[in-house]
Amino acid sequence: MKAQRIAKIDHEIQRILGMLISQELQDPRLAFVTVTHVEVSDDLRHCKVFVSVIGDRHAARQSLDALTHASRFLRGELGRKIDLRYTPELVFVEDRSAERAIELAKTLRDAAQRLTPEESE
Q1: Four-residue CA torsion sign, 74, 77, 81, 86
Q2: pTM of the model
Q3: pLDDT tens track for 13-50
Q4: CA 92/CA 51 separation, integer angstroms
């Protein structure tokens, strides 16, 4: 299948799941969850949903458990809102790229502060 079509499907699934998670799910285990990226397999049968969770490791684990528990509901709603032959199976994966970016920025800032004005020239 064309990569451009898969990218459009990825984006549409990301948009719909983001809306469903924020508006339809009422699970108290859910922290602030953001769908950051979606990867659909070439045959459109499987979908990895990368989510970013604001909070500590415990909140992230609970949120992923809640999303896994609600995956059948989310898949059904996704099937009603998107016109595909097969509605993909959803697998939720924690996306920690924002945390790594913050850590890297902090490390670079600390390294820049340790340099004396003579070393930076």
Answers
A1: positive
A2: 0.79
A3: 999 999 999 998 888 888 888 899 999 998 999 999 99
A4: 7
**Helices then strands, each counted (H, E), the chain:** 5, 3
Radius of gyration, CA atoms only, the chain? 19
**Would you state the pLDDT for residue 95?**
85
CATH number of 3-96: 3.30.300.20
Burial class (CB in 10 A: 0-12, 13-18, 19+), 100: exposed
CA dist 48 and 88 (Å) reads 9
For residues 7 and 15, give the distance between their C-alpha atoms in angstroms, rounded to a whole number.
Answer: 12
Question: CA nearest 51: which of 26, 18, 76, 23?
Answer: 18
CA separation for the pair 32, 30 (Å, rounded): 7
| Cβ atoms of 21 and 30 closer than 8 Å | yes
Residue with the two structure tokens 């809640």: 66
